Amino acid sequence: MSGEFSIRKYPRTPHLEGSRLQPGDEDLSQIRFSEIAGRYLVVEEKCDGANSAISFSKNGELLLQSRGHYLTGGYRERHYNLMKQWANTHRDAFYQVLGSRYIMYGEWMYAKHTVFYDALPHYFLEFDIFDRVYGIFLDTPSRKKMTEQMSVVSVPVLAEGIFTEQEKLLALLGRSSYISEKHIQCLQKVSAEMGLDVQRQCRETDASDAMEGLYIKEEEGGQVVSRMKYVRASFLQCVDVSETHWLDRPIVPNQLAVPVEKLFEE
User: Fold this and answer.
1) Four-residue CA torsion sign, 37, 39, 43, 49
2) Is pLDDT at 28 greater than 80 in this prediction?
3) In a domain, 12, yes or no
């Protein structure tokens, strides 16, 4: 299926010192702020979705990816059904920009994980583009030029520049761009309409309207030269008390701020 390309899994991201380690990250090193102080950083909102990617084989075959495997069908891919429809609808526009050279990574936000979003602009939020020719991840301005040609929505950029104090960097960790004040009421309504246990859905959901965390990139010379993440402690506490993994639960769709039909417009 993948033609002449082996799959490129998105790199695992170390934590900035002070970040709460997520399950599975115990073997990752932590980066001290002193290592990035005075360097040019791009700080994005870290969104709670499924790591996904869109690319093409050398013969022009559309390749949709979830972490380390291509999407080929099956029950556990059911939360990707809309992504498959959307990507195929915009296949030609994507190919004109990406060709077989670039891989576009993003969060697929359809299914609720720990955070419930009720004001998303799109279900696919781009956050990185990899250049297969040069073996680099493009910097933010280069990505922006490409995503604008595809009408793709990117994760929110909170700040860009040089930081000399960790406190000022972490001060960016505030309310999510995609969570309204009434998100819990919205979750209760959606859960009830689906016939689900409303109290259980609320227990398995972070009640805060805060971001999951920050995603921080050091950029230089047109590329990303290092990356790290900072996850707020209260987010991990909610993950810890959840009774099951989100993939083993009924799919509760996060909500869009626009009609779903807008996703398919050219």
Assistant:
1) negative
2) no
3) no
